[in-house]
Design a protein that fits this description.
The chain has four helices and no strands. It is mostly helical and 88 residues long. It is elongated, with a radius of gyration of 19 Å.
């Protein structure tokens, strides 16, 4: 594991807390092994979660979503979108 200065630990500690990285089951010690990578993933996941929440509240998108998971006229298999927590 890398050695960090007090300033670096404070910086990464703030990132860890502000991005709620512990919500994904990652300890601060684990986070410090690859802080940039965990931070990047947390930002992506948070953005995806916000998009999913926004789409849940858009009536037009709810209708489109139900059409996406309805059987097609050719009876081809369809994909269903999964929502919820994402793992890092």
């Amino acid at each position: 594991m890398a050695t960090y200065t007090d300033e670096q630990l404070e910086h990464w500690g703030e990132v860890f807390v502000n991005q709620d990285i512990s919500d994904y089951g990652v300890s601060f010690e684990q986070f410090l092994t690859q802080p940039e990578e965990y931070s990047r993933k947390a930002i992506i996941i948070r953005g995806l979660s916000e998009v999913v929440e926004t789409l849940k509240h858009e009536p037009d998108m709810q209708q489109r979503g139900s059409q996406m998971i309805s059987p097609t006229r050719h009876n081809a298999p369809t994909k269903q979108w999964k929502t919820g927590r994402y793992a890092l």
